[in-house]
From TrEMBL:
Record flagged with keyword Cell wall biogenesis/degradation: no
GO molecular function terms listed in the Swiss-Prot or TrEMBL record: DNA-binding transcription factor activity; sequence-specific DNA binding
PANTHER family: GLYCINE CLEAVAGE SYSTEM TRANSCRIPTIONAL ACTIVATOR, HTH-TYPE TRANSCRIPTIONAL REGULATOR
Recorded family membership: Belongs to the LysR transcriptional regulatory family.
A Gene Ontology biological process term: positive regulation of biosynthetic process
Transmembrane stretches, start-end: none
Protein name in the entry: DNA-binding transcriptional regulator, LysR family
Pfam families recorded: HTH_1 (PF00126), LysR_substrate (PF03466)
Keyword Transcription regulation in record: yes
Record's keyword terms, sorted: Activator, DNA-binding, Transcription, Transcription regulation
Length: 298
């Protein structure tokens, strides 16, 4: 049934299509760019249709190329997962997880020691980025953890942590709030949809007149910097209950009016459907569930 399929050419095409580059495919497959070009031309000749548009500095899939890529990528991924599952010691292997720098620094990395202890055979690479990834196109990333309200119907998803926002400060700063209007520390969000409720919403819920009193406001690009500013005593921060958890546990920050919160979104683990069965991915997802469930985490 499959004797006439040009498997080498198809594998070469998948690599070039996924990376939109003959050169990158050549590096991945350990061949020359000329060899990749020959394989692609042979496949196009065999099919009788063009698969790529050759542009001055890159290549782009044609509509037929897109159709072939989506079918081929899914099939090769399924074969790869099955082979991995059949190998001896299936819990070992490599795993690439992508998440935001702030979530990595403030929640994930402080807990990763327990994952390494439980799974010493898994080589975990953490990719920290705020860029959006197309997991159907980028097979180099196994799993992403992202924050937001967006749904991803084409991906396997696992909601990890729901959050709320509250006000926190260094112990000495919070102790003095009854006597003076604090400096308000906030974050300059790249996507306003992620955090429409801010200091105005919290002050309204708490009945605090800080904004009417024209409190000084300081903005930072990342939650990590905002929390560090609060730890340093620069003011109070409106922060995620998830990202502040380690600072609370260590006593570096304490809550102010913990009964007053505004809603946040959810941190979700995402992967290509079927990838959740890949042993290193499954091990990591299982570990995340345990961490989230431990002590009523965050």
């Amino acid at each position: 049934m499959f004797a006439n399929l040009p498997l080498t050419a198809l594998r070469t095409f998948e690599s070039a299509a996924r990376q939109s580059s003959f050169k990158a495919a050549a590096e991945e497959l350990a061949v020359t760019p000329t060899a990749v070009s020959h394989q692609i031309k042979a496949l196009e000749s065999w099919l009788g249709i063009p698969l790529f548009e050759r542009l001055p500095r890159c290549v782009r899939l044609t509509s037929c190329g897109e159709r072939l890529f989506h079918s081929l990528h899914g099939a090769l991924l399924e074969v790869s997962q099955t082979v991995d599952a059949l190998r001896p010691q299936p819990s070992t292997g490599s795993l690439t997880v992508s998440t935001t720098p702030t979530f990595a620094a403030l929640w994930l990395i402080p807990r990763l020691g327990r994952f390494y202890a439980a799974h010493p055979g898994i080589n975990l690479r953490l990719d920290t980025s705020t860029a959006l990834l197309d997991l159907h196109q980028d097979a180099s990333v196994d799993l992403v953890v992202r924050y937001g309200l967006t749904e991803y119907p084409s991906l396997h998803s696992q909601c990890l942590l729901d959050e709320c926002f509250a006000v926190y400060g260094a112990p000495r700063v919070v102790a003095g709030l009854a006597e003076r209007t604090p400096t308000l520390i906030t974050v300059r969000w790249r996507n306003s949809q992620l955090y429409d409720l801010s200091w105005k919403a919290w002050c309204a819920a708490a009945g605090e007149p800080w904004l009417e009193q024209r409190a000084v406001e300081r903005e930072y690009d990342e939650e990590y910097y905002a929390l560090q500013a609060a730890i340093g005593g620069q003011g109070v921060v409106l922060a995620s209950s998830i990202l502040v958890s380690e600072s609370l546990a260590s006593g570096l920050l304490v809550p102010y009016r913990p009964d007053v919160t505004v809603p946040g979104a959810c941190y979700t683990a995402l992967c290509v459907p079927g990838r959740e069965r890949h042993p290193p991915v499954k091990a990591f997802l299982d570990w995340l569930r345990q961490e989230v469930g431990a002590k009523g985490a965050p």
